[in-house]
Specification:
The complex is a heterodimer of chains A (360) and B (278). Chain A is 41% helix and 19% strand. Chain A starts with a strand and ends with a helix. In chain A, helix 11 links the parallel strand 11 and strand 12. Chain B has 278 residues and is an alpha/beta fold. Helices cover 38% and strands 17% of the residues of chain B. In chain B, helix 2 packs across helix 8 and helix 3 runs parallel beside helix 5. The chains are: A alpha/beta (360), B alpha/beta (278).
Amino acid sequence: MARELQLMKGNEAIARAMIASGCDGYFGYPITPQSEVMETLMAEKPWETTGMTVLQAESEVASINMVYGGAATGKKVATSSSSPGISLMQEGLTYLAGAEIPCLVVNVMRGGPGLGTIQPSQSDYFQSVKGGGHGDYQLYTLAPASVQEMYDFVFDAWDIAFKYRNPVLILSDGAIGQCMEKLYTRDNVARWTEEERRKNAPWGTWGKPATRNHNIITSLELDSARQEVFNHKLQAKYAEMKEKEVRFEALNCEDADYIIVAYGSSSRIAMKAMQMAREKGIKVGLFRLITLFPFPTKQLAEVAKRVKGILCVEMSAGQMIEDVRLATECGVKTEHFGRFGGIIPTPGEVLEALENKIIK
Amino acid sequence: MEARRQELLNQGYEEVYTRTKVLTDAVMHYCPGCGHGTTHRLIAEVIDEMGIQDNVVGVSPVGCSVLAYNYFDVDFQEAAHGRAPAVATAIKRLNPDTFVFTYQGDGDLAAIGTAETIHAANRGENMTMIFVNNGIYGMTGGQMAPTTLVGMRSATTPYGRRVDLNGYPLRMTELLSTLPGTYYVTRQSVQNPAAVRKAKAAIRKAFENQKLKKGLSFVEILSNCNSGWKMTPVAANKWMEDNMMPNYPIGDIKVDGKIVEGIDANRLVLDHPLTVMQ
Protein backbone atom coordinates (compact mmCIF):
# COMPACT_ATOMS: atom_id res chain seq x y z
CA MET A 1 0.00 0.00 0.00
CA ALA A 2 1.60 3.22 -1.12
CA ARG A 3 0.97 6.61 0.50
CA GLU A 4 -2.72 7.42 0.22
CA LEU A 5 -5.45 9.16 2.18
CA GLN A 6 -7.87 6.91 4.06
CA LEU A 7 -10.53 7.14 6.76
CA MET A 8 -9.69 4.71 9.53
CA LYS A 9 -10.25 3.74 13.17
CA GLY A 10 -7.27 4.07 15.52
CA ASN A 11 -7.23 0.36 16.30
CA GLU A 12 -7.42 -0.50 12.62
CA ALA A 13 -4.52 1.90 11.97
CA ILE A 14 -2.40 -0.05 14.47
CA ALA A 15 -3.14 -3.32 12.69
CA ARG A 16 -2.55 -1.94 9.19
CA ALA A 17 0.68 -0.27 10.32
CA MET A 18 1.90 -3.58 11.71
CA ILE A 19 1.40 -5.26 8.36
CA ALA A 20 2.82 -2.30 6.42
CA SER A 21 5.91 -1.97 8.64
CA GLY A 22 7.11 -5.53 8.10
CA CYS A 23 5.93 -7.03 11.38
CA ASP A 24 6.63 -10.79 11.52
CA GLY A 25 4.12 -11.83 14.14
CA TYR A 26 1.20 -10.69 16.27
CA PHE A 27 -0.12 -12.56 19.30
CA GLY A 28 -3.17 -11.22 21.11
CA TYR A 29 -6.25 -11.82 23.18
CA PRO A 30 -9.59 -10.04 22.74
CA ILE A 31 -10.39 -7.16 25.08
CA THR A 32 -12.48 -4.02 24.66
CA PRO A 33 -11.74 -1.33 23.48
CA GLN A 34 -8.92 -2.67 21.27
CA SER A 35 -10.37 -5.85 19.77
CA GLU A 36 -10.37 -4.35 16.27
CA VAL A 37 -6.58 -4.70 16.19
CA MET A 38 -6.65 -8.50 15.98
CA GLU A 39 -9.94 -8.51 14.08
CA THR A 40 -8.40 -6.34 11.36
CA LEU A 41 -5.30 -8.53 11.22
CA MET A 42 -7.39 -11.69 10.91
CA ALA A 43 -9.56 -10.11 8.22
CA GLU A 44 -6.53 -8.91 6.26
CA LYS A 45 -4.87 -12.38 6.32
CA PRO A 46 -1.31 -10.99 6.12
CA TRP A 47 0.08 -14.54 6.19
CA GLU A 48 -1.05 -14.74 2.56
CA THR A 49 0.66 -11.48 1.57
CA THR A 50 3.62 -10.44 3.71
CA GLY A 51 3.93 -13.79 5.50
CA MET A 52 3.13 -12.25 8.88
CA THR A 53 1.91 -14.72 11.54
CA VAL A 54 -1.23 -13.84 13.53
CA LEU A 55 -2.37 -16.00 16.43
CA GLN A 56 -5.12 -15.63 19.01
CA ALA A 57 -3.65 -16.77 22.31
CA GLU A 58 -5.44 -18.32 25.29
CA SER A 59 -4.74 -15.31 27.52
CA GLU A 60 -2.78 -12.08 27.72
CA VAL A 61 -0.27 -13.99 29.83
CA ALA A 62 0.27 -16.38 26.93
CA SER A 63 0.31 -13.66 24.28
CA ILE A 64 3.06 -11.61 25.96
CA ASN A 65 5.11 -14.78 26.40
CA MET A 66 4.56 -15.61 22.73
CA VAL A 67 5.94 -12.16 22.01
CA TYR A 68 8.94 -13.11 24.15
CA GLY A 69 9.54 -16.35 22.27
CA GLY A 70 9.03 -14.98 18.78
CA ALA A 71 10.85 -11.69 19.30
CA ALA A 72 13.80 -13.50 20.89
CA THR A 73 14.40 -15.16 17.53
CA GLY A 74 15.23 -11.70 16.18
CA LYS A 75 11.90 -11.04 14.50
CA LYS A 76 9.53 -8.06 14.71
CA VAL A 77 6.75 -9.21 17.03
CA ALA A 78 3.86 -7.30 18.58
CA THR A 79 0.84 -7.60 20.82
CA SER A 80 -1.94 -5.26 21.88
CA SER A 81 -4.39 -5.15 24.75
CA SER A 82 -6.23 -2.82 27.09
CA SER A 83 -5.58 -1.98 30.74
CA PRO A 84 -6.67 -5.19 32.57
CA GLY A 85 -4.91 -7.28 29.92
CA ILE A 86 -1.80 -5.14 30.16
CA SER A 87 -1.79 -5.77 33.91
CA LEU A 88 -1.63 -9.48 33.15
CA MET A 89 1.31 -8.84 30.83
CA GLN A 90 3.47 -7.10 33.43
CA GLU A 91 5.41 -10.27 34.28
CA GLY A 92 6.18 -10.78 30.61
CA LEU A 93 7.17 -7.15 30.14
CA THR A 94 9.76 -7.20 32.90
CA TYR A 95 11.18 -10.45 31.47
CA LEU A 96 11.30 -8.86 28.01
CA ALA A 97 13.12 -5.81 29.40
CA GLY A 98 15.41 -8.01 31.51
CA ALA A 99 16.29 -10.24 28.56
CA GLU A 100 16.64 -7.13 26.30
CA ILE A 101 14.15 -8.29 23.70
CA PRO A 102 12.89 -5.68 21.23
CA CYS A 103 9.14 -5.82 20.64
CA LEU A 104 6.00 -3.70 20.39
CA VAL A 105 3.17 -3.64 22.93
CA VAL A 106 0.09 -1.47 22.44
CA ASN A 107 -2.15 -0.48 25.37
CA VAL A 108 -5.49 1.07 24.39
CA MET A 109 -6.35 2.26 27.89
CA ARG A 110 -9.73 1.93 29.58
CA GLY A 111 -10.85 3.05 33.02
CA GLY A 112 -9.89 1.14 36.17
CA PRO A 113 -9.16 0.00 38.77
CA GLY A 114 -10.08 -3.66 38.50
CA LEU A 115 -12.34 -4.59 35.66
CA GLY A 116 -13.38 -0.93 35.68
CA THR A 117 -15.06 0.35 32.57
CA ILE A 118 -14.60 -0.14 28.84
CA GLN A 119 -14.58 3.63 28.22
CA PRO A 120 -11.39 5.65 27.58
CA SER A 121 -9.05 6.54 30.42
CA GLN A 122 -5.42 7.49 31.02
CA SER A 123 -4.90 5.93 34.41
CA ASP A 124 -2.10 3.54 33.38
CA TYR A 125 0.61 6.22 33.34
CA PHE A 126 2.26 4.97 36.53
CA GLN A 127 2.08 1.37 35.32
CA SER A 128 3.64 2.34 32.00
CA VAL A 129 6.54 4.56 33.07
CA LYS A 130 7.15 3.73 36.72
CA GLY A 131 7.63 -0.01 36.18
CA GLY A 132 4.41 -2.03 36.15
CA GLY A 133 6.42 -5.17 36.74
CA HIS A 134 9.21 -5.85 39.22
CA GLY A 135 12.79 -4.64 38.97
CA ASP A 136 14.53 -1.57 37.58
CA TYR A 137 13.45 -1.35 33.97
CA GLN A 138 11.79 1.07 31.56
CA LEU A 139 9.63 0.74 28.48
CA TYR A 140 10.14 3.32 25.75
CA THR A 141 6.62 4.78 25.84
CA LEU A 142 4.95 6.66 22.98
CA ALA A 143 1.60 8.42 23.44
CA PRO A 144 -0.25 8.93 20.13
CA ALA A 145 -2.83 11.73 19.97
CA SER A 146 -4.35 10.89 16.59
CA VAL A 147 -5.13 7.98 14.31
CA GLN A 148 -2.21 9.15 12.14
CA GLU A 149 0.13 8.80 15.10
CA MET A 150 -1.28 5.36 15.95
CA TYR A 151 -0.14 4.38 12.48
CA ASP A 152 3.18 6.24 12.37
CA PHE A 153 4.35 5.22 15.84
CA VAL A 154 4.23 1.53 14.89
CA PHE A 155 6.89 2.25 12.25
CA ASP A 156 8.92 4.32 14.72
CA ALA A 157 8.63 1.64 17.40
CA TRP A 158 10.65 -0.96 15.49
CA ASP A 159 13.57 1.46 15.02
CA ILE A 160 13.75 2.27 18.73
CA ALA A 161 13.12 -1.32 19.85
CA PHE A 162 15.95 -2.79 17.80
CA LYS A 163 18.32 0.15 18.28
CA TYR A 164 18.14 -0.24 22.06
CA ARG A 165 17.08 -3.91 22.34
CA ASN A 166 14.14 -2.79 24.48
CA PRO A 167 10.36 -3.23 24.44
CA VAL A 168 8.40 -0.25 23.11
CA LEU A 169 4.96 0.60 24.48
CA ILE A 170 2.41 2.59 22.52
CA LEU A 171 0.16 4.01 25.23
CA SER A 172 -3.10 4.96 23.61
CA ASP A 173 -6.62 5.14 24.98
CA GLY A 174 -10.12 4.06 24.04
CA ALA A 175 -10.93 7.40 22.42
CA ILE A 176 -8.00 7.31 19.98
CA GLY A 177 -8.49 3.58 19.44
CA GLN A 178 -12.18 3.88 18.60
CA CYS A 179 -12.38 7.18 16.73
CA MET A 180 -12.15 7.41 12.94
CA GLU A 181 -9.92 10.04 11.34
CA LYS A 182 -8.19 10.61 8.09
CA LEU A 183 -4.82 9.04 7.77
CA TYR A 184 -2.00 9.00 5.22
CA THR A 185 -0.67 5.48 4.82
CA ARG A 186 2.98 4.83 4.09
CA ASP A 187 4.82 2.70 1.58
CA ASN A 188 5.10 -0.89 2.74
CA VAL A 189 8.31 -1.95 4.40
CA ALA A 190 9.15 -5.54 3.51
CA ARG A 191 9.61 -8.08 6.29
CA TRP A 192 13.26 -8.76 6.97
CA THR A 193 14.91 -11.43 4.91
CA GLU A 194 16.78 -14.20 6.72
CA GLU A 195 20.04 -12.33 6.11
CA GLU A 196 18.60 -9.08 7.46
CA ARG A 197 17.31 -10.80 10.59
CA ARG A 198 20.74 -12.27 11.31
CA LYS A 199 22.42 -8.92 10.68
CA ASN A 200 19.93 -6.86 12.70
CA ALA A 201 19.58 -9.33 15.58
CA PRO A 202 22.89 -11.18 15.93
CA TRP A 203 21.82 -12.08 19.48
CA GLY A 204 18.70 -13.92 18.27
CA THR A 205 17.93 -17.62 18.79
CA TRP A 206 17.20 -19.19 15.42
CA GLY A 207 19.57 -22.18 15.51
CA LYS A 208 23.28 -22.02 16.28
CA PRO A 209 25.54 -22.16 13.24
CA ALA A 210 28.95 -23.81 13.78
CA THR A 211 30.53 -20.37 13.38
CA ARG A 212 29.24 -18.87 16.63
CA ASN A 213 28.58 -19.77 20.27
CA HIS A 214 25.05 -20.61 21.27
CA ASN A 215 22.84 -17.60 21.84
CA ILE A 216 21.01 -17.57 25.16
CA ILE A 217 18.01 -15.37 25.94
CA THR A 218 17.50 -15.09 29.68
CA SER A 219 16.94 -12.54 32.42
CA LEU A 220 18.45 -14.79 35.10
CA GLU A 221 21.82 -14.04 36.72
CA LEU A 222 22.52 -15.83 39.99
CA ASP A 223 25.77 -13.91 40.54
CA SER A 224 24.75 -10.61 42.18
CA ALA A 225 27.93 -8.84 41.13
CA ARG A 226 27.19 -9.62 37.49
CA GLN A 227 23.53 -8.70 37.91
CA GLU A 228 24.60 -5.30 39.20
CA VAL A 229 26.87 -4.78 36.20
CA PHE A 230 23.98 -5.74 33.92
CA ASN A 231 21.61 -3.35 35.71
CA HIS A 232 24.12 -0.53 35.20
CA LYS A 233 24.11 -1.39 31.50
CA LEU A 234 20.30 -1.12 31.41
CA GLN A 235 20.42 2.21 33.23
CA ALA A 236 23.00 3.51 30.74
CA LYS A 237 20.63 2.52 27.95
CA TYR A 238 17.74 4.41 29.56
CA ALA A 239 20.03 7.43 30.10
CA GLU A 240 20.89 7.39 26.39
CA MET A 241 17.17 7.32 25.55
CA LYS A 242 16.66 10.35 27.81
CA GLU A 243 19.45 12.10 25.96
CA LYS A 244 18.51 11.21 22.38
CA GLU A 245 14.97 9.94 22.05
CA VAL A 246 12.73 12.49 23.82
CA ARG A 247 9.74 13.62 21.77
CA PHE A 248 7.24 16.38 22.54
CA GLU A 249 5.32 19.18 20.86
CA ALA A 250 5.18 22.75 22.19
CA LEU A 251 2.29 24.81 20.78
CA ASN A 252 1.96 28.54 21.50
CA CYS A 253 4.41 28.18 24.38
CA GLU A 254 6.65 31.12 23.35
CA ASP A 255 4.36 33.89 24.61
CA ALA A 256 2.27 31.82 27.00
CA ASP A 257 1.48 32.95 30.52
CA TYR A 258 0.05 29.53 31.31
CA ILE A 259 0.56 26.12 29.78
CA ILE A 260 -1.41 22.91 29.75
CA VAL A 261 0.59 19.69 29.84
CA ALA A 262 -1.19 16.69 28.38
CA TYR A 263 -0.78 13.65 26.13
CA GLY A 264 -3.03 11.45 24.00
CA SER A 265 -6.76 12.26 23.93
CA SER A 266 -6.39 14.84 26.69
CA SER A 267 -4.00 16.85 24.55
CA ARG A 268 -6.63 17.07 21.82
CA ILE A 269 -9.17 18.42 24.31
CA ALA A 270 -6.53 20.73 25.78
CA MET A 271 -5.78 22.09 22.31
CA LYS A 272 -9.38 23.22 21.96
CA ALA A 273 -9.33 24.65 25.50
CA MET A 274 -6.17 26.57 24.54
CA GLN A 275 -7.92 28.07 21.50
CA MET A 276 -10.92 29.06 23.62
CA ALA A 277 -8.62 30.71 26.16
CA ARG A 278 -6.76 32.62 23.45
CA GLU A 279 -10.09 33.87 22.09
CA LYS A 280 -10.77 35.23 25.59
CA GLY A 281 -7.34 36.91 25.58
CA ILE A 282 -5.65 34.48 27.97
CA LYS A 283 -2.23 33.47 26.63
CA VAL A 284 -2.24 29.70 26.99
CA GLY A 285 0.19 27.22 25.44
CA LEU A 286 0.08 23.44 25.11
CA PHE A 287 3.03 21.24 25.95
CA ARG A 288 2.14 17.84 24.53
CA LEU A 289 4.12 14.83 25.68
CA ILE A 290 4.83 12.34 22.89
CA THR A 291 7.29 10.18 24.83
CA LEU A 292 6.19 9.51 28.40
CA PHE A 293 9.43 7.66 28.97
CA PRO A 294 11.81 9.29 28.34
CA PHE A 295 10.01 12.29 29.82
CA PRO A 296 10.92 15.67 28.26
CA THR A 297 12.23 16.92 31.59
CA LYS A 298 14.70 19.55 30.38
CA GLN A 299 12.46 20.88 27.65
CA LEU A 300 9.47 21.26 29.96
CA ALA A 301 11.62 22.90 32.65
CA GLU A 302 12.78 25.44 30.09
CA VAL A 303 9.21 26.37 29.09
CA ALA A 304 8.05 26.37 32.73
CA LYS A 305 10.56 29.14 33.60
CA ARG A 306 8.54 31.57 31.48
CA VAL A 307 5.01 30.79 32.74
CA LYS A 308 2.90 31.61 35.79
CA GLY A 309 1.16 28.28 36.09
CA ILE A 310 0.74 24.79 34.65
CA LEU A 311 -2.42 22.74 34.37
CA CYS A 312 -1.91 19.01 33.91
CA VAL A 313 -4.81 17.40 32.09
CA GLU A 314 -5.05 13.62 32.19
CA MET A 315 -8.02 11.24 32.36
CA SER A 316 -6.87 9.99 35.75
CA ALA A 317 -6.71 11.05 39.40
CA GLY A 318 -3.39 12.74 38.64
CA GLN A 319 -0.43 10.57 37.69
CA MET A 320 1.59 12.47 35.04
CA ILE A 321 1.54 15.56 37.30
CA GLU A 322 4.20 13.95 39.49
CA ASP A 323 6.71 13.99 36.62
CA VAL A 324 5.70 17.55 35.68
CA ARG A 325 6.38 18.72 39.23
CA LEU A 326 9.69 16.86 39.27
CA ALA A 327 10.68 18.42 35.95
CA THR A 328 9.92 21.93 37.16
CA GLU A 329 11.14 21.16 40.69
CA CYS A 330 7.80 22.58 41.86
CA GLY A 331 9.05 25.98 40.76
CA VAL A 332 5.72 27.05 39.35
CA LYS A 333 2.14 26.51 40.46
CA THR A 334 1.04 23.16 39.00
CA GLU A 335 -2.36 21.54 39.39
CA HIS A 336 -4.14 18.50 37.97
CA PHE A 337 -7.47 18.37 36.22
CA GLY A 338 -9.00 15.17 35.05
CA ARG A 339 -12.12 13.12 34.77
CA PHE A 340 -11.83 9.40 35.21
CA GLY A 341 -13.72 6.16 35.26
CA GLY A 342 -14.27 6.48 31.52
CA ILE A 343 -15.51 10.08 31.47
CA ILE A 344 -13.87 12.37 28.91
CA PRO A 345 -13.62 16.04 29.97
CA THR A 346 -14.90 18.79 27.70
CA PRO A 347 -12.70 21.70 26.52
CA GLY A 348 -14.97 23.99 28.57
CA GLU A 349 -14.26 22.03 31.73
CA VAL A 350 -10.53 22.23 31.04
CA LEU A 351 -10.69 25.99 30.53
CA GLU A 352 -12.74 26.38 33.68
CA ALA A 353 -10.21 24.31 35.64
CA LEU A 354 -7.41 26.47 34.26
CA GLU A 355 -9.18 29.63 35.34
CA ASN A 356 -10.19 28.33 38.77
CA LYS A 357 -7.15 26.29 39.76
CA ILE A 358 -4.30 28.24 38.11
CA ILE A 359 -5.25 31.76 37.03
CA LYS A 360 -7.43 32.77 39.98
CA MET B 1 41.22 -34.20 25.54
CA GLU B 2 40.74 -34.79 21.81
CA ALA B 3 44.49 -35.50 21.42
CA ARG B 4 44.39 -38.11 24.19
CA ARG B 5 41.35 -39.68 22.54
CA GLN B 6 43.17 -39.94 19.21
CA GLU B 7 46.21 -41.40 20.97
CA LEU B 8 44.13 -44.14 22.56
CA LEU B 9 42.31 -44.88 19.29
CA ASN B 10 45.70 -45.15 17.57
CA GLN B 11 46.80 -47.62 20.22
CA GLY B 12 43.93 -49.85 19.16
CA TYR B 13 41.35 -48.94 21.81
CA GLU B 14 37.77 -49.19 20.67
CA GLU B 15 35.47 -46.29 21.48
CA VAL B 16 32.30 -47.63 23.08
CA TYR B 17 31.05 -44.52 24.89
CA THR B 18 31.80 -40.87 24.43
CA ARG B 19 30.41 -37.48 25.31
CA THR B 20 28.13 -35.70 22.89
CA LYS B 21 29.21 -32.40 21.41
CA VAL B 22 25.70 -31.02 21.99
CA LEU B 23 26.38 -30.76 25.73
CA THR B 24 28.73 -27.95 26.83
CA ASP B 25 31.64 -28.32 29.27
CA ALA B 26 29.66 -26.52 32.00
CA VAL B 27 29.48 -28.52 35.23
CA MET B 28 25.82 -29.40 35.90
CA HIS B 29 24.35 -28.19 39.16
CA TYR B 30 21.94 -31.12 39.49
CA CYS B 31 22.05 -33.33 42.58
CA PRO B 32 23.95 -36.60 42.00
CA GLY B 33 21.49 -39.35 41.10
CA CYS B 34 18.77 -37.02 39.80
CA GLY B 35 17.22 -37.81 36.43
CA HIS B 36 17.78 -34.37 34.91
CA GLY B 37 21.41 -35.03 33.94
CA THR B 38 20.51 -38.27 32.16
CA THR B 39 17.52 -36.69 30.42
CA HIS B 40 19.67 -33.76 29.26
CA ARG B 41 22.17 -36.17 27.82
CA LEU B 42 19.50 -38.16 25.97
CA ILE B 43 18.09 -35.01 24.34
CA ALA B 44 21.61 -33.89 23.41
CA GLU B 45 22.39 -37.29 21.88
CA VAL B 46 19.19 -37.20 19.83
CA ILE B 47 20.00 -33.70 18.54
CA ASP B 48 23.53 -34.88 17.73
CA GLU B 49 22.43 -38.06 15.97
CA MET B 50 19.76 -36.22 13.95
CA GLY B 51 22.37 -33.65 12.88
CA ILE B 52 20.16 -30.71 13.84
CA GLN B 53 22.42 -28.86 16.32
CA ASP B 54 22.44 -25.82 14.05
CA ASN B 55 18.65 -25.77 13.71
CA VAL B 56 17.18 -26.26 17.16
CA VAL B 57 15.93 -23.87 19.84
CA GLY B 58 15.28 -25.06 23.39
CA VAL B 59 13.16 -23.38 26.06
CA SER B 60 14.00 -23.88 29.72
CA PRO B 61 11.56 -23.40 32.61
CA VAL B 62 11.73 -22.03 36.11
CA GLY B 63 12.62 -24.80 38.51
CA CYS B 64 15.58 -27.15 38.87
CA SER B 65 16.28 -27.06 35.12
CA VAL B 66 16.16 -23.25 34.85
CA LEU B 67 19.84 -23.27 33.84
CA ALA B 68 19.43 -25.95 31.14
CA TYR B 69 20.56 -23.35 28.60
CA ASN B 70 24.06 -23.51 30.07
CA TYR B 71 24.34 -27.24 29.36
CA PHE B 72 23.02 -27.58 25.81
CA ASP B 73 25.23 -26.16 23.08
CA VAL B 74 22.24 -24.98 21.08
CA ASP B 75 20.33 -21.68 20.99
CA PHE B 76 18.14 -21.42 24.06
CA GLN B 77 15.54 -19.21 25.70
CA GLU B 78 14.69 -19.10 29.39
CA ALA B 79 10.95 -18.67 29.91
CA ALA B 80 8.98 -17.20 32.80
CA HIS B 81 7.53 -19.77 35.23
CA GLY B 82 5.10 -22.02 33.36
CA ARG B 83 5.18 -20.09 30.09
CA ALA B 84 7.52 -22.29 28.06
CA PRO B 85 4.75 -23.72 25.82
CA ALA B 86 3.62 -20.18 24.88
CA VAL B 87 7.21 -19.08 24.27
CA ALA B 88 7.90 -22.17 22.18
CA THR B 89 4.64 -21.74 20.25
CA ALA B 90 5.83 -18.43 18.85
CA ILE B 91 9.35 -19.67 18.15
CA LYS B 92 7.89 -22.50 16.09
CA ARG B 93 5.20 -20.42 14.36
CA LEU B 94 7.77 -17.84 13.26
CA ASN B 95 10.47 -20.41 12.48
CA PRO B 96 8.49 -23.44 11.24
CA ASP B 97 11.53 -25.30 9.94
CA THR B 98 13.45 -25.03 13.21
CA PHE B 99 13.22 -27.88 15.73
CA VAL B 100 11.76 -26.50 18.98
CA PHE B 101 11.60 -28.20 22.35
CA THR B 102 10.54 -27.23 25.84
CA TYR B 103 11.96 -28.72 29.02
CA GLN B 104 9.84 -28.34 32.15
CA GLY B 105 9.25 -29.82 35.58
CA ASP B 106 5.95 -30.74 37.21
CA GLY B 107 5.39 -27.46 39.05
CA ASP B 108 6.17 -25.41 35.97
CA LEU B 109 4.20 -27.50 33.47
CA ALA B 110 1.32 -28.88 35.54
CA ALA B 111 0.63 -26.11 38.09
CA ILE B 112 1.49 -22.53 37.15
CA GLY B 113 1.70 -23.32 33.44
CA THR B 114 -1.40 -25.52 33.11
CA ALA B 115 -3.19 -23.17 30.72
CA GLU B 116 -0.19 -22.72 28.43
CA THR B 117 0.44 -26.49 28.40
CA ILE B 118 -3.13 -27.46 27.57
CA HIS B 119 -3.61 -24.79 24.93
CA ALA B 120 -0.30 -25.43 23.17
CA ALA B 121 -1.26 -29.12 23.05
CA ASN B 122 -4.80 -28.36 21.95
CA ARG B 123 -3.55 -26.16 19.10
CA GLY B 124 -1.38 -29.08 18.08
CA GLU B 125 1.77 -26.99 18.05
CA ASN B 126 4.34 -28.90 16.03
CA MET B 127 7.01 -29.15 18.71
CA THR B 128 8.45 -31.43 21.38
CA MET B 129 7.67 -31.04 25.06
CA ILE B 130 9.79 -32.81 27.67
CA PHE B 131 8.15 -33.06 31.10
CA VAL B 132 10.29 -34.21 34.02
CA ASN B 133 8.01 -35.41 36.81
CA ASN B 134 9.53 -36.02 40.22
CA GLY B 135 6.41 -35.30 42.24
CA ILE B 136 7.88 -32.35 44.11
CA TYR B 137 9.18 -28.79 43.83
CA GLY B 138 12.90 -29.56 43.93
CA MET B 139 14.56 -26.17 43.59
CA THR B 140 12.53 -24.31 46.20
CA GLY B 141 13.09 -26.99 48.81
CA GLY B 142 10.70 -29.86 48.34
CA GLN B 143 7.18 -28.44 48.50
CA MET B 144 4.04 -30.22 47.23
CA ALA B 145 3.70 -30.37 43.45
CA PRO B 146 0.52 -31.06 41.46
CA THR B 147 1.96 -34.56 40.93
CA THR B 148 2.78 -35.27 44.58
CA LEU B 149 1.21 -38.60 45.51
CA VAL B 150 -1.61 -38.93 48.01
CA GLY B 151 0.01 -39.51 51.38
CA MET B 152 3.43 -38.31 50.18
CA ARG B 153 5.27 -35.99 52.55
CA SER B 154 6.70 -32.70 51.35
CA ALA B 155 7.72 -29.38 52.92
CA THR B 156 4.15 -28.10 52.58
CA THR B 157 2.43 -31.44 53.26
CA PRO B 158 4.54 -32.51 56.27
CA TYR B 159 1.94 -35.12 57.28
CA GLY B 160 1.39 -36.31 53.72
CA ARG B 161 -0.78 -35.05 50.86
CA ARG B 162 -4.45 -35.16 51.80
CA VAL B 163 -7.10 -35.31 49.11
CA ASP B 164 -9.55 -33.28 51.20
CA LEU B 165 -7.01 -30.45 51.50
CA ASN B 166 -4.94 -30.70 48.35
CA GLY B 167 -6.96 -32.59 45.78
CA TYR B 168 -5.66 -35.40 43.62
CA PRO B 169 -2.34 -35.81 41.85
CA LEU B 170 -2.70 -34.42 38.34
CA ARG B 171 -1.93 -36.82 35.50
CA MET B 172 -1.19 -34.19 32.88
CA THR B 173 0.17 -36.69 30.39
CA GLU B 174 -3.01 -38.75 30.33
CA LEU B 175 -5.04 -35.55 30.14
CA LEU B 176 -3.08 -34.27 27.13
CA SER B 177 -3.46 -37.58 25.33
CA THR B 178 -7.21 -36.96 25.12
CA LEU B 179 -6.67 -33.78 23.07
CA PRO B 180 -6.79 -34.11 19.27
CA GLY B 181 -3.79 -31.75 18.98
CA THR B 182 -1.35 -34.27 20.47
CA TYR B 183 0.32 -36.72 18.08
CA TYR B 184 2.62 -38.64 20.40
CA VAL B 185 2.22 -38.91 24.18
CA THR B 186 4.37 -41.16 26.31
CA ARG B 187 5.69 -41.64 29.85
CA GLN B 188 9.21 -42.92 30.37
CA SER B 189 11.83 -43.05 33.12
CA VAL B 190 15.62 -43.06 33.40
CA GLN B 191 16.43 -45.06 36.54
CA ASN B 192 18.24 -47.99 34.86
CA PRO B 193 19.92 -48.75 31.49
CA ALA B 194 16.84 -50.43 30.01
CA ALA B 195 14.64 -47.46 30.93
CA VAL B 196 17.24 -45.02 29.58
CA ARG B 197 17.27 -46.78 26.19
CA LYS B 198 13.48 -46.66 25.96
CA ALA B 199 13.40 -43.03 27.04
CA LYS B 200 15.94 -42.14 24.37
CA ALA B 201 13.90 -43.88 21.68
CA ALA B 202 10.84 -41.91 22.82
CA ILE B 203 12.71 -38.60 22.71
CA ARG B 204 14.04 -39.46 19.26
CA LYS B 205 10.52 -40.17 18.05
CA ALA B 206 9.28 -36.92 19.61
CA PHE B 207 11.89 -34.96 17.64
CA GLU B 208 11.43 -36.94 14.42
CA ASN B 209 7.70 -36.19 14.58
CA GLN B 210 8.41 -32.49 14.04
CA LYS B 211 9.39 -33.34 10.48
CA LEU B 212 5.93 -34.80 9.92
CA LYS B 213 4.24 -31.57 11.08
CA LYS B 214 1.36 -33.51 12.65
CA GLY B 215 1.17 -31.90 16.08
CA LEU B 216 2.58 -32.01 19.55
CA SER B 217 4.89 -34.72 20.87
CA PHE B 218 4.90 -34.97 24.64
CA VAL B 219 7.39 -37.05 26.63
CA GLU B 220 7.03 -37.33 30.39
CA ILE B 221 10.12 -38.60 32.18
CA LEU B 222 9.61 -39.91 35.70
CA SER B 223 12.58 -39.01 37.84
CA ASN B 224 13.54 -39.36 41.46
CA CYS B 225 14.22 -36.27 43.54
CA ASN B 226 16.48 -37.92 46.04
CA SER B 227 17.33 -34.75 47.95
CA GLY B 228 13.71 -33.58 48.01
CA TRP B 229 12.48 -37.02 48.97
CA LYS B 230 15.31 -37.24 51.53
CA MET B 231 16.62 -40.61 50.33
CA THR B 232 19.80 -41.94 48.78
CA PRO B 233 19.67 -42.05 44.96
CA VAL B 234 19.40 -45.84 44.98
CA ALA B 235 16.61 -45.86 47.58
CA ALA B 236 14.87 -43.03 45.71
CA ASN B 237 14.82 -45.03 42.47
CA LYS B 238 13.39 -48.03 44.32
CA TRP B 239 10.77 -45.79 45.93
CA MET B 240 9.92 -44.32 42.54
CA GLU B 241 9.37 -47.78 41.07
CA ASP B 242 7.27 -48.90 44.06
CA ASN B 243 5.16 -45.74 44.49
CA MET B 244 5.33 -43.41 41.49
CA MET B 245 4.99 -46.02 38.77
CA PRO B 246 1.68 -47.52 39.94
CA ASN B 247 0.21 -44.01 39.79
CA TYR B 248 2.12 -42.93 36.70
CA PRO B 249 2.36 -46.07 34.52
CA ILE B 250 5.31 -46.20 32.11
CA GLY B 251 4.79 -46.56 28.37
CA ASP B 252 3.30 -44.98 25.28
CA ILE B 253 -0.21 -43.60 25.71
CA LYS B 254 -0.76 -42.18 22.23
CA VAL B 255 1.21 -42.98 19.09
CA ASP B 256 0.71 -41.49 15.63
CA GLY B 257 -2.33 -39.61 16.91
CA LYS B 258 -4.08 -42.72 18.27
CA ILE B 259 -4.53 -43.95 21.86
CA VAL B 260 -2.47 -47.13 22.26
CA GLU B 261 -4.53 -50.33 22.44
CA GLY B 262 -4.96 -51.68 25.93
CA ILE B 263 -4.68 -48.33 27.71
CA ASP B 264 -7.17 -48.36 30.56
CA ALA B 265 -9.84 -45.85 29.60
CA ASN B 266 -10.25 -44.96 33.27
CA ARG B 267 -6.72 -43.60 33.27
CA LEU B 268 -7.66 -41.15 30.54
CA VAL B 269 -10.81 -39.83 32.16
CA LEU B 270 -8.89 -39.42 35.41
CA ASP B 271 -11.42 -41.03 37.72
CA HIS B 272 -9.25 -44.06 38.44
CA PRO B 273 -8.78 -44.40 42.22
CA LEU B 274 -5.18 -43.46 42.90
CA THR B 275 -3.00 -45.55 45.15
CA VAL B 276 -2.86 -44.11 48.65
CA MET B 277 0.59 -44.47 50.17
CA GLN B 278 0.90 -46.08 53.58
